[in-house]
Amino acid sequence: MNFSELECENCGTRYFVPFDEMDCQTTSSYERGMGPEIMYFGQAEVSCPICSSPARIEYDASEYPVGCANYSETNAKGARVVSEFGDLQLHFDEDIYHLDDSGLFLPQQRGIITSLELGAADLVNIITENPAAIYTISPREFEDLMQHVFSKHGFEVEMTKQTRDGGVDLVAVQSIMGIKTKFLVECKRYAVSYPVGVGIVRALYGTHVQQGANKSVLVTTSRFTGPARKFANATNTTMMHIDLKDINDIMSWVNACQCI
């Protein structure tokens, strides 16, 4: 089995993360000289088995030409990567690919190699008509969707890099009466049955303090645990700094986009 080894930044414990735990998706495909280059991105929320400190592990990879692992990189936040995941294990669909005289696999049907990333406006339309569709999009598409939603509501939004972003996915700035406010937005595209715990909220608050933001927002397609909400609402600590927004808030925002 394919594993990555992490070292907890808090207590130094080393532990393994199996690749099977990664939510890995095809994000894009670009035509090049020998066919398409297919890009992959995966991530998973994990925690130290000793001190329970949260960490996020992320995986970037590309396939080019078809069937050949061209590049892969493993990164983590909240932990140090001791050993990376191996290359993607690739296989072929004989109905799509064939060998030419040079021994290269070539696509027989263009346009069906991968499902390309939808535009954010398209996602708004799809999710408005079918709310359950939000659970079929990739984590990166969810970030694109939130960037679009915040932009529609008057924010200037910058999406951070997929790796080494300090635990923040979006930086949103709004100006009211000429006074600018800075929002940090962390996006969690989780299943309904997988709530966001207090460790992730604590980590966001740490980033909030470090980066000097006016407000930080944690948005999820799931819900929040009781301890997570208690921490966010703690008197004289985080009540004016952290907002938690769940699937109900997200759907309200998305529906409002249709009227803006």
What is this structure's SSE topology?
Layout (H helix, E strand, L loop, with lengths): L2 E6 L5 E5 L4 E10 L2 E13 L6 E10 L5 E9 L1 E5 L13 E3 L5 E3 L12 H10 L9 H14 L3 E4 L10 E7 L2 E10 L9 H14 L3 E6 L5 H7 L9 E4 L1 H11 L3
Parallel strand pairs: 12-13, 13-14
Antiparallel strand pairs: 1-2, 1-7, 3-4, 4-5, 5-6, 8-9, 10-11, 11-12
Our measurement of the CA-to-CA distance between the termini, rounded to an integer number of angstroms, reads 48 Å
The SSE order reads: EEEEEEEEEHHEEEHEHEH
Query: Looking at the structure, what is the overall shape?
Result: globular
Helical percent range? 10-25%
Care to count the β-strands?
14
Looking across the biggest beta sheet, what order are the strands in? Answer: 10-11-12-13-14
Compute the number of helices: 5
The biggest sheet amounts to: 5 strands, mixed
Low-confidence stretches: 90-100, 102-117
Notes on the structure:
The protein has 260 residues and is of the alpha+beta class. Helix content is 22%, strand content 37%. The protein contains five helices and 14 strands. The protein has helices at residues 120-129, 139-152, 198-211, 226-232, 247-257; strands at residues 3-8, 14-18, 23-32, 35-47, 54-63, 69-77, 79-83, 97-99, 105-107, 156-159, 170-176, 179-188, 215-220, 242-245. It has a five-stranded mixed β-sheet, sandwiched between helices. A four-stranded antiparallel β-sheet has the order 3-4-5-6. A hairpin with a 5-residue loop joins β1 and β2. α1 (120-129) crosses α2 (139-152). The chain is globular and about 55 Å long. 32% of the residues are buried. Mean pLDDT is 79; it is low at 90-100 and 102-117.
